[in-house]
C-alpha cells in the first residue's frame, strides 16, 4: 500500500468497518477479465478467522465461475464523505475500506439455515424469522478470508 499512513492492520478495527458496510464486492477469475459482482453479506468470526456468507440463485455465471476456481478477491467500503479544503481550493473523499482474498465454498444444505441467519443478522439486529421454504431454492456461499487490509481517509489535512 502506497499510503501507509492510511493503512489499517488492527483486526478489530477492520471488523468494525466491515460491520458498517452494506455491500461486499467479489471478483472472480473469468478468462480475459475479472468478473465483479456486488453482494449482500453476513460476517462471522470463528477462531480468529473471518467468514463471509453470501446467498444466490441456484444457477448463474457467478456459481459457474466459483465451481471452476473458488479463489476470489473482495472489497467493501463505507463512511463516504466529501471533504472540501476551501483555503486550498481542492477537495477529496473520505472513506473506510477493506480489501482481501479468500476461498469460497458452497454451504451444504444442512448448514444453510444457520448461514442465512448470520447473513440476516448483518442487516437486521434481532433474530429475523424468514420463510425456510426458500432455503431449497437458495445457494449459500461461505468465503474463508485468507488475508485482508483496511484503509481509511478522513478529514485530517
Structure in words:
This protein is α+β, with helices and mostly antiparallel strands and 157 residues long. The protein has a single domain, classed as Electron Transport, Fmn-binding Protein, Chain A (Pnp Oxidase, Chain A, Roll), CATH 2.30.110.10. 19% of the residues lie in helices and 46% in strands. The chain is built from three helices and eight strands, in the order βαββββαββαβ. Strands 1, 2, 3, 4, 5, 6, 7 and 8 form an eight-stranded antiparallel sheet that branches. It starts with 6 loop residues before the first strand and ends with a strand. It holds the Pfam family Pyridox_ox_2. InterPro entries: Pyridox_Oxase-rel, Split_barrel_FMN-bd. This is Pyridoxamine 5'-phosphate oxidase.
Number of domains: 1
Cα shape? globular
Uncertain segments are none
The CATH class label is Mainly Beta
User: What's the Cα radius of gyration?
Assistant: 18 Å
Head-to-tail CA distance between termini: 19 Å
The count of helical stretches stands at 3
Output the CATH topology: Pnp Oxidase, Chain A
What is the name of the CATH superfamily?
Electron Transport, Fmn-binding Protein, Chain A
The mean pLDDT is: 89
The count of strands amounts to 8
Protein name: Pyridoxamine 5'-phosphate oxidase
InterPro entries: Pyridox_Oxase-rel, Split_barrel_FMN-bd
Organism: Anaerostipes caccae (strain DSM 14662 / CCUG 47493 / JCM 13470 / NCIMB 13811 / L1-92)
Pfam family, one: Pyridox_ox_2
